[in-house]
Design goal:
10% strand, Helicase, Ruva Protein, domain 3, 6-stranded mixed sheet
């Protein structure tokens, strides 16, 4: 049963025409019912809320993706929203990472069942690892698999030299997280989670971090929150226990390199490929660099009207990517 405060807040937001607050309160009521074990009622309430946002009648759960609500006002400058089409089968992952992502997807697809037993499905992830290893793609895949929108937080717009303003913007984002179900992706999260980047003004960035920790811990929405960083060692230790899972990403091994090359070449013929030698050449490249190398080889073949690639074609583009990588690596003293 909704509390008196929730009913008053619901009525006030309706009178004021504040749709964002109205939906936020309604989602809180749905979450409360789920905690009481009223799973079917909670699911019906969420369906009605999603349908209201889309301006249409509800449909059976799972038959249509969650309607996307484009951010408005100041939120439009803080969030980029879209529907990804990526799927988990497109990723080449080690068994442990794949199993953990599959587990999250299964728990999300059985949201009501889990909540009916007073439990919460996994929905707060911290992804750590070098650039180009699949962290951003993971956020797209989870949104694509669950049929919900991906909201990418624009840290350049979020973080300003006025920390009080940053905390206020962060509050708007968490209000959106509560009112619109989606995957919310905080990339380069160490900008918030670490004490750096603002000169000597450590006290102010600490207050922003404390605000984030508090909002993250208090959040009981149905959204998925993903933070990603290339610098886990710089994160505040208090952050780690706020997440349901911390997933480590790394460079692909020889077997994964071959799998990734084959996946990216699907639909394009390659004559007698020497996968083992190609994998040795590609050793040290990340997922993004391998993808670019394959794309460059295919584009060259298309331009020259060649329907078949050779190992030599791929070797050339892989070596080009290695040369770029070595040029960008910091020189040893």
């Amino acid at each position: 049963m909704a509390s008196a405060d929730q009913l008053k807040a619901l009525l006030k937001s309706h009178i004021d025409g504040d749709d964002g607050h109205f939906f936020a309160v309604a989602m809180q009521m749905a979450a409360h019912e789920a905690k009481l074990g009223h799973g079917k009622l909670a699911e019906e309430l969420r369906g009605m809320i999603d349908a209201a946002k889309a301006g249409s009648v509800p449909v059976v759960s799972g038959k249509r993706p969650t309607p996307i609500a484009q951010p408005r006002g100041e939120l439009a400058g803080l969030l980029d929203a879209y529907y990804p089409k990526a799927r988990l089968t497109e990723m080449v992952l080690d068994d442990s990472t794949s199993e953990r992502l599959q587990r999250l997807i299964k728990e999300q697809r059985n949201f009501s069942k889990i909540q009916a037993h007073g439990l919460s499905p996994r929905r707060k992830l911290l992804l750590v690892g070098p650039p180009g290893t699949g962290k951003t793609l993971t956020a797209s895949v989870l949104a694509g698999e669950l049929g919900i929108p991906l909201f990418v937080v624009r840290l350049d717009a979020l973080i300003t030299k006025f920390m009080g303003e940053t905390a206020a913007k962060l509050r708007q984002i968490f209000d959106c997280i509560a009112s619109v179900r989606g995957v919310y992706f905080f990339d380069e999260f160490d900008a918030i989670g670490a004490q750096r980047g603002f000169g000597n003004d450590v006290g102010e960035i600490r207050r922003v971090l404390n605000s984030f920790l508090q909002m993250l811990e208090q959040d009981e929405s149905n959204s998925i929150i993903i933070a990603a960083t290339n610098h886990p060692q710089s994160l505040d230790y208090a952050l780690f226990r706020r997440f349901d899972d911390v997933i480590q990403y790394g460079l692909p091994n020889q077997v994964q390199i071959v799998e990734l090359l084959k996946a990216k070449l699907s639909g394009f013929n390659i004559a007698k490929p020497s996968w083992s030698s190609l994998a040795k050449i590609a050793d040290g490249l990340n997922h993004a660099e391998l993808t670019r190398a394959v794309q460059e080889a295919i584009k060259d073949a298309v331009i020259h009207d060649r329907e078949i690639l050779t190992s030599a074609d791929l070797k050339k583009t892989l070596e080009e990517r290695k040369a770029v990588q070595q040029h960008l690596l910091p020189k040893q003293p």
